[in-house]
Amino acid sequence: MRVITLKNPVPLATPFTLVSTDYVTGTSLLVDDSSDFADNQLILIGGIGNEKTESTDLTATPPDQNTLTISSLSFPHNSDESVERIIWNQFDIDYNTGSGWVSLVAGQTFDWGKTETTYVHQTGSDFYSYRSRFKNSATGSYSDYSGTVVGSGLIRTQVGSMIKEVRNFSRDLNDQKASDQQIISYFNSCQDIVKLLNQKFDFLNLDYTFATVVSRNYYDLPDDCRRVYRLKYTVVTDNRNETYHLTYKTPTDFDPLYGNNNLADSDDLKDYTIDWTNRLIKVGPTPETIQSLELNIKQTLKTYLLILIKQLFLFPNY
Q: What distances in angstroms separate CA 258 from CA 214, 221, 255, 262, one per listed residue?
């Protein structure tokens, strides 16, 4: 069994009005101001998170400034309940067992009484993949599909998982203090900070082993390399097993020493330099045989934004 959880769509800021007269039944909803609403729009009555909140569609142009023509509602609604426009009121979920996508549920209505809607796949498995999309039942239009999530759940490095961790950390489980968009903007800001100050964050260290080639004195830097810390050289033969660090030299010092193509190859490397322009690491002397080169670098920020958010106390008052 798998439980799929979807975040309910957020209503638009405008248009917005209030129920002016208690609604009991029928297809007319009396409101304070209907002038900004239009035929074929979706509305949400009662506000997300309230027990009897529900959605419906407008079936005609408002006949006057204080009336909305709607499909019948399931619950009575009191005056002063909110009336908001929404873009989506239903969702589809597909699953994939490895042989292509199959529809699990289509046109399912959101549970507006909560900020999230859950759907239980009774025969689901950790090995299944899931995706979802939103639907507007009035127009028949769909949103783009969500990212794919495996049945075992979000992994730690996915944005959805990090957002949940931030909400747990900030005690904002009901999205009252910050929206998902705000949290994602914090992630982006954190990434900029790490790029500026990444030498201070040990969790960005990464060991990288080169795919080495005999008699070559240059190798491509990893794509995510921002700063090199050390280069280790390992030699393993029948009577030798040694690992030691190469000495860094600036390009100005390195090139005169090892720029001569007539230099003989050597088993033992001594020095290295970094050519940032061409994103190469150069070693010298050129090795005749080579066993292993291991580079200790700082990588660009990819997976540790949550750690930094906690360190920076982006929610200091929570």
A: 16, 19, 5, 9
**Position 190 pLDDT exceeds 80:** no
pTM beyond 0.85, yes or no: no
What are φ and ψ of residue 307, in 5° steps? -55, -45
**Measuring CA to CA, how many Å separate 301 from each of 5, 113, 208, 219?**
28, 38, 16, 23
Which residue is associated with the tokens 């990444």? Answer: 198
- Strand intervals (E) in 116-223: 116-121, 129-136, 141-142, 149-150, 205-209, 218-220
Alpha helix ranges (H) inside the chain = 159-170, 180-197, 251-258, 305-312
Cα 54 to the center of its chain, rounded Å: 29
pLDDT, tens only, 81-94: 999 999 999 999 99
Among candidate residues 206, 217, 181, 193, the one with its CA nearest the CA of residue 305: 193
- Phi first, then psi: what are they for 178, rounded to 5°? -155, 140
